[in-house]
Amino acid sequence: MFGLKQFFKELLKDDTKKVEQKVAVEALRNAFTNRYLNFKTLLSTNNKVLELITDMEQAFSGSRIFGMSFIRANCTAISVNIYKIISCLNKIANDKYKELPRILEGILPKIDRQLQQKKLETWGELVLTLESIDKTMADHVGAKMANLGEVKNAVGLPVPEGFVITSAAYERFMKYADLQDEINRRIQFLEPADIARLHETSSDIQNLIVTARCPPELEDAIIKAYTDLMEKAGHDLHVSMRSSALGEDTRDASFAGQYRSVLNVSRENLILSYKEILASKYSVPAVSYRLNKGFRDEDIIMCVGCMAMVDAGAGGVMYSADPGNIRHECIIINAACGLGKSVVNGSMALDLFVLSKEDPKIILKKEISLKRQQLVSGSSEGILLVDVAGEQANNPAITVEQAALLGEFALCLEKHFGAPQDIEWAFEPDGSVSILQSRPLMVLGKELTGMKNIPESKVDLPVILTGGVTASPGVASGPAFVVETTVDMLQFPSGAVLVTKNPLPQWAALLNNAIGVVTDRGGVTGHMAAVAREFNVPALFGTSTATEHVQNGDLITVDATGGTVYAGRAEALLEKEAEKTSLMKGSPVHNTLENVLKYIAPLNLTDPDASDFTPEGCRTLHDIIRFAHEMSLRELFEFKKDASFPEHLARRLVIDVPMQWWVVDLGGGCKEGMKGDTIGLEDITSGPMLTLWEGITAIPWKGPPPIDTKGFFSVMYGATMDRSLVPGMRSRYADRNYFMISGNFCHLSSRFGFHFSTVEAFFGEKVTENYICFNFNGGGADNVRRERRAKLIKLILEKFDFWVQIKSDTVFARLERQEVPFLKERLKVLGHLVMHTRQLDMVMSNSGRVNNYLEKILKELSSFVDVSR
Predict the structure, then answer these.
(1) Are 127 and 661 in contact (CB under 8 A)?
(2) What confidence score (pLDDT) does residue 405 get?
(3) 186: exposed, middle or buried (C-beta count within 10 Å: 0-12, 13-18, 19+)?
(4) 194-213 pLDDT, tens digit each
């Protein structure tokens, strides 16, 4: 009896022990699975942050257009995701790195200070007379009126009497109406390519400003300045009111035609016109221009110049140099009958005078147009479009003597300001002349005026039209899109050639999307011509018949330099075009991104074994994610240092492949009842891992490719310049490759030398849940060779239906929502690439090698991958 009792007691004891062991192992597995899930989240978040950082770096060094919203959004996304990375690390390490949030919170305020809106200080009077202004006062009255004050008071040339409503007045108005916060809310996520949203937001903001009440003290100051001006003139008068924003009319940013001018304004409409000009800061062209040129909204403060209205018999614009060739010794004058507004907006036929700089009395070129209409001042207010009477339509707008006088003025202004000038002028009927504007002229270094004989390129395409004037040199090809109305503007497609009758300033908002411009009318001195040159968009103006001969959707090539439009794509011309440079370099937004990146992008923690590889050693956000990634690997895989993770949960794969492969079963990835610290391939039940392994081993790797001398030195140079590639500074896990598996899941993290890749796959019952992700980067060669290798991988993956993105030498790829058989064939492709593209960066000496290896690898893949699925 005693023996039987003891037997059952021992049996119960054994069962209890087995149950306890089973519970303990299951607890350990659950704990490990939770740690791995946090590690998986950390890895994916780490990749996301690196993509964001790369995106910011590429924006800084590339030609893309971005605004403050791009910088703020990326900074926010990076900081949020780094908090997530730190949280995952501490869950893996049982709150071992509690100091990391404090380190992060020490860096983020430095970034915030760069993002804060730094308002320009405004000071002084609300209104100043033109007599009291010179070029040193641009921060108070804007560059346009500061220059005019200089022309009047320092140079001594005739300028109409007037006054300026200052930057202090603008600040007073915006604060009184409590507008700025509401405006900031509406504009913070605007993008220049979204024309429809630009229109909607622009209309709303302009309405807010125009309907706002003007501060009584500002209204009184404006009316008093007008009354003083009228008393000085000795008679009733109207004024012209022109924008003079801070940042406008500078060497790098003309803002030509982007803001409103109101001509022939009476006393009754002074305040309304003032508000309309303030509101024009948010016109569609102005907002688009600022976004494209990298100006922050807070840096643009609108001043307004008010000058006695000139009842012009002729007006126009002149350049004191050829903007296409500064060494071309000439002065260019465009003239029109009536007000010069028709010259700057390109709506009328213009006369052209090209004068010698050595002697402005010498006319090098003269073209007199038929002038059927002109703009004149209305008898009560505003301006009118009237017909030009009789023979006057064929007469020059100005005389030869008047042209010579303008030429003398141009030379005088260029000498005084020390640079070529863009000058607006007007002649009254009695022959007296006034200077209405003088600003720096943007010089391109390319021919605009056609004064030199340039051999024509041989183009074997039908010619649609020839003639016109080169408003902005260059060649562009794409589908034509004719714009006549605002509705057309909203439908304008990116990458099209803008074709229109008149180069109106409002069409400048399309220059971010347009690759070229062709117009019926207009000249080189118009507002849109100036903006096209700033944006480096080829523009051919004044062709007379472009809208008659070009239809929507026609594929055309615009040779603005040669004055020809071809049917089709002229490859011979396009090959000669230089790549466009960024419009934003040196702008406030670009500078802000540069300053922000100093606290985000640099990587100082390169050696995991160095004494400063600590939380306190993190000086940038990149340092934090590098530290967190390395520590997560240590915490997850250094089993001997953590008693709660016994080694039997990670087993070495015993296989005839000369590398270390380790397997962590998260549940259902291996046969049940496994014991020991090794595992064979026959013990694996994870479908994705077996499929991936099939691709890895289908064709044995024969070692690195033969390397040439240049490739050898490229590798040596790359290893020397990049401290992270020095073997002693790599992670101690560089020689291990880990499979994390379950029955339908596989995550491979592999490091081969300087190369790092991850493959992750999930094959479930629902097609919508299935996916494959792939990440590959690194290499020992220089950047150019590594980038060529990345291009090779991209070309291969795209042939197998992957979505692929390259950022520098890093390849991101994914394929999702597909049937399992289809995904299995693609997973084999990744297995092959993981093995057979390593060290290929060393031999990527030219694009020809890319093509050679593309053919080779595709041939290899075709031997074991069913591409028909």
Answers:
(1) no
(2) 95
(3) middle
(4) 778 888 888 899 999 999 99
pLDDT digits (tens, 9 = 90+) for 820-839: 999 999 999 999 998 888 77
CA 386 to mean position of chain CA atoms: 44
Residue 363 is inside which H or E element, if any? strand 363-367
Query: If you write DSSP's letter for every residue of 275-334 in order, what string do you get?
Result: HHHHHGGGSHHHHHHHHHHT--GGG----EEEEEPP--SEEEEEESSBTTBTTS-EEEEE
8 Cβ neighbours under 8 A, 6+ residues apart: none
Measured distance CA(614)–CA(608) in Å, rounded? 9
Quickly tell me which residue has 């008047």 as its tokens: 402
Rounded to whole angstroms, how far apart are CA atoms 780 and 392? 75
Encode 610-671 in three state secondary structure.
Answer: CCCCCHHHCCCHHHHHHHHHHHHHHHHHCHHHCCCCCHHHEEEEECCCCCEEEEEECCCCEC
Residue 271: CB atoms within 10 Å: 15
- The confidence score (pLDDT) of residue 579 equals 55
Q: What type of residue is 753?
A: G
Alpha carbon distance 656, 654 (integer Å) = 7
DSSP state of 674: -
Alpha carbon distance 838, 78 (integer Å): 30
Which amino acid, one-letter code, is at 251?
A: R
Report how far Cα 831 is from the mean position of its chain's Cα atoms. Answer: 36
Token couple for 819: 């049937």
Q: Which distant-in-sequence residues (6+ apart) come within 8 Å of 481 by Cβ?
A: 488, 491, 492, 493, 496, 497, 498, 499, 552, 553
Q: Under DSSP, is residue 453 helix (H, G, I), strand (E, B) or coil?
A: coil
pTM exceeding 0.85: no
Do 434 and 402 form a contact (C-beta atoms < 8 A)? no
CB atoms near residue 702 (< 10 Å): 7
DSSP reduced 3-state for 263: strand
Residues 6+ apart with CB under 8 A from 743: 667, 668, 669, 685, 686, 687
> Which pLDDT does position 768 carry in this prediction?
67
The token duo for 228 is: 């003083």
Query: Token match 């050693």: residue?
Result: 617
Cα–Cα distance, 481 to 490 (Å, whole number): 12
Quote the radius of gyration of the chain (alpha carbons, Å).
35
Nearest to 30 by CA among 844, 649, 795: 649
Cβ-based neighbours of 671, under 8 Å, separated by 6 or more: 683, 685
Handedness of CA 109, 112, 116, 121 (dihedral sign): positive
- Quote the pLDDT of residue 726: 37
Amino acid identity for residue 270 in this structure: L
CA-to-CA dists, residue 366 to 9, 319, 349, 354, 426, angstroms: 118, 15, 14, 6, 19
